[in-house]
């Protein structure tokens, strides 16, 4: 089967500025960060302090400015472990953003006494508005959580966390795998990079991406067990893989998060995972996808809680 050839650029040649500009001009605003994300934040004030950690300024590209916010749980104490939740690294992955906000509005209050909670609900607001994986410079934020980041979305959050001087015990990064990965984003990436696109089978169901250098299989299993109460877990394909990666355990594959510049690798958290919801499944609704993200956070926190309790009382 011939690989799908993207409509921008010349096959085998990486994009230059002209191709990136052509791509940018084709992107359209489809929804509003202000009304779908920012408007939800004031209602969370009883449990969270709202912190602006940066602003994306894309005015030079004919776009706007986007303030970036963290939700910092009340009852913050230095002897409590930090749990970090990130959403919207890829703005098109809707349930990651809305799942982080739903958790903050519903379940978070059950954990504020035992954890310092920090939630970044929408790291890539322009991507959220245009339903896009990249930022306006055709850069993938989720390969950019590195020093001197090429993505302001990744760099601003990473630098802010460094200034806090704390290491999360837990970091859960909320994502989706969609049919558009094969129809749009992987072909576009191959065109941008001057490479050959090879699509993968899109898993039908929820799965996790752990860290191959720190897999924590029991932690991953606890999350899978919790999410299975809400939606189905993706089975491996005929090659025993998910998204082209060998299955590490049921519903879990592993990536080297730090070396790939992934959001999940930007801290030294002991317990780290990336969720992957499949919103295009014929057996999953948008609400179910949001609830799956909430369940994943709850499963992660419940697993880590005994370790968090030992830290609070000064144990090892």
TrEMBL record:
Classification via Gene3D superfamilies: Zn peptidases (3.40.630.10)
Spell out the protein name for this chain. Peptidase
One Pfam family assigned to this protein is Peptidase_M14
Q: What is the species listed in this Swiss-Prot or TrEMBL entry?
A: Alishewanella longhuensis
Report the InterPro entries cross-referenced here.
Peptidase_M14
Q: Give the family from UniProt.
A: Belongs to the peptidase M14 family.
Q: Output the PROSITE patterns linked to this UniProt entry.
A: PEPTIDASE_M14
> What range(s) does the Peptidase M14 domain occupy?
29-316
